[in-house]
Structures are given as C-alpha cells and as structure tokens.
Design goal:
mainly beta, 6-stranded mixed β-sheet, 5-stranded antiparallel β-sheet
Length: 670
C-alpha cells in the first residue's frame, strides 16, 4: 500500500513540473511600415508619412544626414505622419520609420529622403537715389519672398521703423526730408523666414548722378580690379564737393568705402579690389550725399564683370648689382649692343649729386656684356653737360645708317650723339638745341630713310625734330609744338601710317599728329587728373596699332596704369585702368615672356619692386608680377631709369634699373 502511494505522488509531481516548463507561445513584433515618403515643407521643415503597419500601436521616426545612417530618433507618432522641424536650409535628410507596440519595435522601413528649401536670400543690389519725389529705393528680387518690408533704422537708438511693405522691388520714401540722413534696409519675408539687406546710410538732398567703371573687364585671377565712381550734381555745375564717401558693392555685399575730400565737380572715387575670384560678378557704387552742399545720395547702374583664370607667368632671380656711378647720381638706363659683338650691353648716365665729382658727373657708362655674360667694368664717356639741370636721358638707334646702334644723350645745352665705330662708341658730337634738352627719341619721323632726333626742349622752346642726314649729321630743327618740358615718345597713334609724337606733362599727355604734308596738327590733350610717372607707346592690345600707356605715380588706390587703346577711327579710347603696387614710375615695353605679345614693365619708386604686366591673348594686360629690388630701395626712378634686354645671355629679357643707392642693377629673368 505504501509503495502505491509513492508511485502516485511521483507521477503527480512530474506532471506538475512538465506543466511548468512548457513554454508559452511568444508575441510577434509589429511589421515595419511601408510607403514611407519625405517631402520638404520649407527651409526648416520636412513632412514624413507612411502606411499603417500590422500590429503597430505607434511609430518611431529616425533621421540621418548621410544615406544609410547612422540614424537618430527625432520623434514618435501615433498617426501616419510626422513633421520634422528646425532643420538647416538646402540640406538633404534621410528618414526611416519603425513600428512599435508596447516594448516591441519593428525593423526599419525603407529609407526616404528630402531636401529642405534654399535659405531666403538677403535682398541684393540695394540702392538709394534722392529724387524730386523722395528717396527712391530699389533692390533685386529674392526667390521665395512674398513681400518686402522697407525699414528705417533710427539713430542713435537703432529702433526699426517700418516705412512700408511692398511686393515690388522698389519703394519711394515720399516723406524723406531734405537735409536729413536715413539708415535704410529692406527685409525679404517669405515662408516663415526673413532676410535683411545691407544697410545704407544716405542723405536726402539735391539730385546727383553716380556712374561706375570697372576695369579691366575681364580681369584675371590675382589681378586688382579698379572701381572708379564719378559723381556729378544733376542741376549744378562748377560745384565744390566737400567730402563724405562712396561705398562700393560686389555681388550685393559691401566691398569697401572711400572717403572723399574736397574737389571740384565732377568728383571721382577710386577703389582697388584685391582677390576677385574667378567667375561673373556684379558691381555698383553708392554715393552717400553730403551736408554742406545739401547733395543727395545716388547709386550707379550695376556693372557686370568677369574674372578669368590667370595667363602666363614670369619670375626673376636675385638682383645682380654693379656698384658703379655711386659717386654721382645714376639717372637713365638703356640696353643695346654698342660694342658690335652681338651681345646686349648696359648703358647708364650719371647726373650730379651735391657739390659734385667732376670725374664721375655727366658721364655715359657702357658696361659691355662679356662672353661669360657678366658685365664688364664700365667704359666712361664724357658728355657736354655741365650743370645739375642736365637730364642725361638716353635714346638708342642707328643715326648714321651703318646698321649699328648709336646713342643720344639729352643734356643742358643740347643732345650728345655717340656714333658706334669699330669696337664701340666714339666721342660725342653735340647737337645744339638752343635750350635744355629735356628728353630725346630716335625715329625716322620724316620717312626719308634716315633716323631723326626728336627732342623735348625746355619751356616755350617746345618739341623739335632734327632731321637725320646721311653719315650721321642733322639738319635744321622743325618745331612741332610749344608744349615741351616733358617725356616724349614716337609712334603712329592715329593709324594713318605717319609717325606722331606723344608728349607727357605732369598731369596730362598730348598727341601731335603728323599731317600728310609733313606738318603737325595742333595737339590733342588728354587730362589725367593726377600726377604721372612715365609713359610708353606701343601695341598693347595685339591689333598692330600703337597705344599709349601712362603710369600714375601715387599710392593705392590711385596707383594705376592707364592704357589708351587706338580705335578703328584713329582716335584713342577711354583708358583701360590697371591697379598696381604703389608709386609706379617709369614704363617700358618689351616681349618679356616670348609669346609674341608686347608686355609692360615698370618700377615702383620708394618701394621694393619692379613689376611686369603680361599682355594676354584677349589684348588686355594681366596681373602685375613683381620682382624684388635690393633694400634700401631708391625713392625715385627717372622715366628713363628702366630698360629691358637680355643681359645674361640666356635669351630671356632682363630688367635694368638705374639705382642711385646701390648702383647698376640687373634683375635676371629666371
């Protein structure tokens, strides 16, 4: 009986244990949702939607900024959609959705993506013009803007007063008061976003007109772009502007401002912009107005400009210094073969310094290039010059018709002519000019096959041509004009096939056109409005015509080179303006990089640089590429103080400088 009870208990216990260990059927996770879609609502919102998933009581929305994750939870929803807020404009976001049921979560859905709308741009090209009906404001349209609020930012509190709203891109502040100043901005409003323009601080007054030139156009990468604004009072002439400023804008943003001084109308503001990136740009200028004359603000029309990739390159090694002429004052430089050996030689003249050193003053130095392509110690030739007023400027050319290069030097009583003979230059012959010879050029002006001397003479003696004769003599002078006293160049600048004479004065240059009968027309003047340092005449556009280049010897922003291109009608166009380093002085033309185009070379008085502007294939000059000169640097270079030629025998033109501090300097092209 006891055994039967034990068996019964064991069987019952096993049944209970079996019942306890039988696993329950597991609950299933919900399915992931299908049909997931993402759609941008604005610049900061994306709506995500999906289809219902079996077994789901809710949903998790996850986001990533790269396709495929990693994903982060950005929200939950019990409905079949979710709006993601606070996003970055113009950004692509990637979404997946997971179904949830209590603590159970489905795998991720398929991925969907959307890109937020672009940011609302600030209104650009915001301009103000004081007119008869009030202050006229205008700006460019903004994509996505539904309206524009025009605001006056009140000074000094900076409180904003909305003057009005408009759906147009212009607005007239009709209640603007004469003589009052306003600080305007325009606010674009759209899709829950706003964007403000730049602020204009301008005066309400009498109408003015502002025009803008942008040069060069196109520019190249690394080249200064010169912005020149001209301001005129619309109904007033001979008005003395007393100041204020012009602000320049590039692509809708301020590029810089120039404060103006007093100047008779028209008023000009010049600004050099560095580092204009490659691409298309839009510039304009805004004149603010001024108090004392009660002139109002005006904006220029917008000017499109392009910057292209840079053309070509040129570089120079360390200067080779020949310390000669230091007892005197080195003045003028030239490069020519005056020894007849086929190698270019360096020519220099000395003036006088202080009390003077007779053995060193008023000399022509010839540094012959040797077979090893260094320069020999100078051969010193005397001249007839004897006073501190002697310019000592050099010209080179064949004056006796024998095919050799001869030399002319302008002095205080005439021009010394050095004819080349066997082994070098002979002793000088003086061609008396009746007054101080300021400058001299050698050219066949009368086209008789003999080169002539063209001489700029002091004061009213003017410019004269001394006709060359067979064997090297010269006939009686033909007076061209009375405006001497400055640099002269010779070239056909009107396209009629006859050599003309261009004379540079301090603030202008004049063109003397030769007539068909061998006479000379009255000069045509070109006012430059500022001081000049040098001039060159030659083909700087690649069209075969002679152009005129003038350096403006000032500091930035007025340090410029102006190139007047000859046009089809035989005149000179308005200049193309090139911004360069401070104080460009002499200018000389040469094909520096052997591409068949004429380039311009200059030197900067008081600074450490010479500079080269290569002519580009489009007929414009490129960026200034500079070469270092020894320090301390010369404070001034004469307009004949630079020359270009191969002084190192490598076939590449080098730069020769007359440096009164260090001596004769060769900057070798590398």
């Amino acid at each position: 009986m006891a055994f039967r009870r034990l068996v019964t208990v064991l069987v019952a216990t096993a049944a209970i244990v079996a019942t306890l260990v039988i696993p329950a059927k597991a609950a299933r996770a919900p399915q992931p949702p299908s049909g997931v879609q993402a759609r941008a609502l604005s610049r900061s919102q994306i709506a995500v939607s999906w289809s219902a998933a079996a077994g789901a009581s809710g949903y998790r929305v996850l986001r990533a900024t790269t396709s495929g994750g990693p994903y982060s939870v950005v929200g939950t929803a019990s409905a079949l959609s979710f709006t993601d807020n606070g996003l970055q404009a113009a950004t692509t976001y990637y979404y997946v959705v997971a179904s949830t049921d209590k603590n159970r979560v489905s795998p991720y859905s398929a991925q969907a993506s959307a890109t937020t709308a672009p940011a609302l741009a600030a209104p650009s090209n915001f301009k103000a013009n004081a007119g008869a009906s009030g202050m006229e404001l205008s700006w460019d349209p903004v994509a996505g803007a539904s309206r524009y609020d025009v605001i006056n930012v009140v000074l000094p509190s900076d409180d904003e007063v909305v003057l009005g709203s408009t759906t147009a891109t212009h607005f007239t502040h009709a209640t603007a008061e004469l003589g009052h100043w306003y600080q305007y901005k325009v606010r674009a409003v759209g899709q829950g976003a706003t964007a403000d323009s730049a602020v204009l601080y301008v005066g309400m007054g009498a109408p003015t007109r502002t025009t803008l030139s942008v040069s060069p156009n196109p520019s190249e990468d690394g080249q200064n772009v010169v912005l020149t604004a001209t301001i005129e009072a619309v109904d007033q002439s001979d008005l003395l502007f007393t100041g204020d400023s012009v602000e320049f804008f590039m692509d809708g943003a301020s590029a810089g401002r120039i404060d103006l001084g007093g100047l008779w109308a028209p008023h000009r503001a010049i600004f050099q912009l560095y580092g204009v990136p490659v691409g298309r740009h839009v510039f304009y200028a805004e004149y603010r107005g001024e108090d004392s004359t009660k002139l109002g603000a005006s904006a220029s029309a917008s000017v499109a400009q392009e910057s292209v990739p840079a053309y070509g390159g040129v570089s120079f090694g360390s200067a080779q210094v020949y310390p000669y002429g230091l007892d005197s004052w080195l003045t003028s430089a030239a490069v020519a073969d005056v020894t007849g050996d086929g190698l270019a030689d360096a020519l220099m003249t000395t003036g006088i310094h202080g009390a003077g050193v007779p053995d060193a003053d008023f000399k022509l130095l010839v540094l012959a290039q040797q077979p090893d392509h260094t320069l020999a110690a100078p051969r010193v030739l005397p001249t007839h010059a004897s006073s501190f007023r002697a310019p000592m400027r050099i010209a080179t050319g064949d004056l006796d018709g024998d095919g050799d290069t001869d030399v002319a030097v302008a002095g205080d009583s005439g021009v010394d002519v050095f004819l080349q003979g066997a082994g070098g230059l002979g002793e000088p012959t003086l061609v008396e000019t009746g007054s101080l010879a300021v400058d001299v050029r050698i050219a066949d002006v009368d086209r008789d096959g003999h080169n002539d001397l063209v001489v700029s003479r002091e004061d009213q003696a003017g410019i004269a041509v001394y006709p060359g004769q067979a064997g090297g003599g010269f006939g009686a002078a033909t007076v061209v004009g009375t405006q001497g006293n400055g640099q002269i160049e010779v070239g056909d600048v009107n396209g009629d096939g006859l050599p003309d004479i261009v004379a540079r004065q301090t603030f202008s240059f004049s063109v003397y056109e030769q007539t068909a009968g061998g006479g000379w027309a009255p000069p045509v003047g070109h006012d430059l409005g500022a001081g000049t340092g040098g001039m060159a005449v030659g083909d700087l556009s690649g069209d075969g015509r002679a152009d005129v280049a003038v350096t403006m010897d000032a500091n930035d922003p007025d340090s410029r080179i102006l190139v007047y291109h000859q046009n089809d009608s035989g005149g000179l166009d308005d200049p193309v303006v090139y911004g360069v380093y401070d104080i460009p002085e002499p200018a000389v033309l040469a094909d520096v990089n052997a591409d068949g185009r004429t380039d311009l070379v200059t030197a900067h008085g008081g600074w450490w640089w010479a500079g080269v502007l290569l002519q580009r294939p489009d007929g414009l000059l490129g960026r200034e590429q500079r070469a270092r000169v020894p320090a301390p640097n010369a404070s001034h270079y004469d307009h004949r103080g630079i020359a270009v030629g191969d002084l190192t025998g490598d076939g590449k033109p080098d730069i020769l400088l007359a440096d009164y501090i260090h001596g004769i300097e060769v900057l070798p092209q590398s």
